[in-house]
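Worked example 2:
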Amino acid sequence: MSSTADDTAATGTDTDTGAATTTAATATTSVARTVTDILQPRNVLLAGMLGIGLAAAGGDWTGLLWGFLGALCAGLIPAGYIEWERGRGTWGDRHVVDRTKRAPIFFVILGSIGAGSVVMVLGNAPTGILVAMLALWVMTIGLLAVNTVWKISVDSAVASAAVSLLAVVHSPWWAAAYALTAAVCWSRVALGYHTVAQTLAGAGLGAATTVAYAFG
């Protein structure tokens, strides 16, 4: 075979390999995007706090109301604030990838969870859901403190906290849901938002919320 033919064949192989690599990378990014969108904090907290509230109330339906209040204050209101700021052009997307711009979000979360906790105390909410709220409040303090010097993963922290709290309040079998937390960590790294260390640190801080039950 001539050198020209060899060069052409080699170029064709390189092109095919490059196209396959690009396709695989695109598919990975698409999956990671779907995972991170579905398991974003507001969705995780909505499901998690409803479950925690129900378990804390001993299965009574009123626990769902307390759980929804918790989800509203810890997840939905902060998410609404992010969307409002996005509309004003403050941030490009909900992920707020610039660490230096995240402080206002943490303060909104702290204020919202604090207000919700006061309502729970006044309304004699089940102890379990109140302890979960206070644990999330302390976790947010930790996220804020670390974020001043290092970009820790909030999504990983929330996913881990929800699973950990459900395992403590409801059933140890909920620990199996850590597969979802692992998926969140993977998606954040795959999308280039965080390093492995940043997601593991977030997950570790989220798991630490269960320490609150040792004193609750």
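The chain has a mean pLDDT of 90. DSSP finds eight helices and no strands in the chain.
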